[in-house]
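Example record

Each entry pairs one chain with its bound ligand, nicotinamide-adenine-dinucleotide.
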Amino acid sequence: MPNRDQKILVVGACGQIGVELTLQLRKMYGEGVVIASDLREEHPLLKGTGPYVSLDIMNKETFHVLVLRYNITQVYLLAAILSATGEKNPMLAWHLNMQSLLNVLEVAKEENLAKVYWPSSIAVFGPDSPKENTPQHTIIEPTTVYGISKLAGERWCEYYWKRYKVDVRSLRYPGLISYKSQPGGGTTDYAIEIFHDAINRGNYISFLKESTYLPMMYMPDAIRATIELMETDASKLTVRSSYNIGAMSFSPREIAAEITKHIPGFSIVYSPDNRQKIADSWPASIDDSLAKNDWGWKPEYDIERMTADMLVNLMK
Ligand code: NAD
Ligand code: SER
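Structure tokens for the complex follow.
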């Protein structure tokens, strides 16, 4: 747990993960300890819960000044362009995803920050990686610009740890499912849209084929995993690129069947688009035994529990 002298900066705090992570960090460590920042306006759920600053992480000097002004000791970097949006503008995705990380790693090195968190993704894997139970160390040849940027980012994290002892930690998140804030343009977003359409319209048009299995995780598990990793003693961590973590794996047909148990008459049709190719290049399930062994990772939500919780909360 950060002591009184720790100050945390969340960059990209108004995104799908950032809102929930910021709220949880404030709950655990105190609202004044956690500074939220983003390019966007402050998210309504963050208002009144703690300090908020406007920040473009691409501007290294502004970021550096902010770190000094607030005596920041830990940074969670969440700003990125995700897989589907990245394919629409590959150079922008590469530029943001790389430069934001390098800016944070450089300032962390220069100011001797205590810890940095930066997420990677299942998108580091490619069509030649094993599909089932994809291991931590295997063929890693991503075919999307998003995946390429995550792979390069992982290499930079390990480099800064080994060369400069910057204590940067990372998880390869699966597709994250949540109801508090909107997803930001990923291929796994279908697994969130389907809940909204099931409730609002009773049917869903899936942009992935019915049998497309992908690794998924419910947001409470992802937030808990992130904070648990950050709180683990550094000596226990054997992976300094990014840890595989898993929770569940399902296809559009399976999640639709699960939703139908709660909303009888719900229907789904399949109209795959360009995101199908991205999904086809990713694993179906993940081997997260190193995360389990090194820092005790254990998911709490499976497809049944996650679906019930999503529906209850979205219907409120
Ligand atoms: P998101 O798109 O919802 O949020 C990203 C936030 O970053 C947005 O609020 C955006 O305004 C902000 N941002 C963009 N450019 C910025 C800049 N220049 N300066 C400051 N802020 C900027 O993304 P997310 O889903 O919350 O993902 C966060 C991280 O987790 C990303 O690195 C993403 O690759 C990774 N990840 C997410 C998932 C998922 O399913 N959501 C899965 C795997 C990995
Ligand atoms: N959920 C993310 C995406 O689909 C995976 O990193 O882009």
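The pocket of nicotinamide-adenine-dinucleotide (ligand 1) is lined by residues 11-12, 14-18, 38-40, 55-58, 78-80, 82, 96, 119, 121, 173, 175-176, 183-184, 186, 188 (CB under 6 Å).
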